[in-house]
Amino acid sequence: MRMLRYVLAAAVGLGALSLAGCAGDPDLAPLESRLAEVDGVNGAMAWPTHSGAPWNTQVNLMLFVDDSSEEALIAAVRATAPTLVSDPVAGRNEVSISFVDGDRADYTDRFEASDAEVRFSDAVTQTLGVRDLSGEVLVLSPDDVRRIADGS
Length: 152
Known about the structure:
Blueprint: H1 2-20, H2 29-36, E1 43-49, E2 58-65, H3 70-86, E3 94-101, H4 110-114, H5 122-128, E4 131-133, E5 137-140, H6 142-149
Parallel strand pairs: 2-3
Antiparallel strand pairs: 1-2, 3-5, 4-5
Helix pairs in contact: 3-5, 3-6
């Protein structure tokens, strides 16, 4: 009987621990608003993902820009980095950034906007010192964001 109590206590403890990471998604609307004020950015869409487990949070950003030249994309990342560093969610989690030519209001949702994502060359990732996914999405660690914000 004593062993059954230990097993039951362990099961309850593990259940509670597994639910601890199941917090709701963070509110990224304030981040979207602040990013829309950055020079070279017309608007932003932000949403979280949780790869592998609920406590593994990644912040996905879609930045809407007027100028989709590689120089302008690099400048947009550099200009948004201080905002990302200061954000309580983006500043401590991996951030993925894609770019869309135009205004946020031109698209009803991120799925429609993803059809218009701008492709870029390796020169963008090499200049910023980050990795990318298939030339459409930059992937920045929290350290990358801090380094870029510091101007290094």
